[in-house]
Amino acid sequence: MEDAGPERDRGAKVPSGLHARPSARIAKEVRRFRCQAEIALNGNAADARSVLDLLGLAIVTASEVEIRATGDDAARCVDALARLLSTAP
Questions:
Q1: I need a labelling partner for 89 at 20 to 30 A (CA). Which of 57, 63, 71, 81 fits?
Q2: So what's the pLDDT on residue 78?
Q3: What pLDDT shows up at residue 14?
Q4: Can you count the helices (H) and strands (E) in the chain?
Q5: Residue 17 has pLDDT above 90, yes or no
Q6: In CATH, what number does 7-87 get?
C-alpha cells in the first residue's frame, strides 16, 4: 500500500467466513471513505474495494484477518470494516 497519509491497522476475527454478499457489503462500505484499504489473511492481501479480491482470500469460519488502511479516513474505515467482518453472516 502506498504512503498516502495517516495509516491504521487492526486485527479482526471473522466468525462465519466471508462469501459473496458480505464481500460486496465490505467493498461498498470502503468506497465511502477517502483511503486505500486492504484485508490480509496469512500474508496475502486483497484490495477491500474488490469483491473478487476479497473472495480470493478464501476467508473461512473463525479466520483472523488484518485490516489496513492509509489515507484521510483510515481510522474510520478500519473501524467500520472490523464491525462488518465481526458480524458477517
A1: 71
A2: 93
A3: 85
A4: 3, 4
A5: no
A6: 3.30.1340.10
Per-domain residue ranges of the chain? 7-87
pLDDT given for residue 1 in this prediction: 52
The residue type found at 28 is: K
Instruction: Give the full edge-to-edge strand order of the sheet including 63-71.
Output: 7-14, 63-71, 35-41, 44-47
**Strand, helix or coil at 83?**
helix
Residue 24 corresponds to which amino acid? A
Joined together, the cell numbers standing for residue 53 give 479480491
Outline where DSSP puts E strands in the chain.
7-14, 35-41, 44-47, 63-71
Give the whole-angstrom CA distance, residue 4 versus residue 22: 27
- Around Cβ 89, how many Cβ atoms within 10 Å? 10
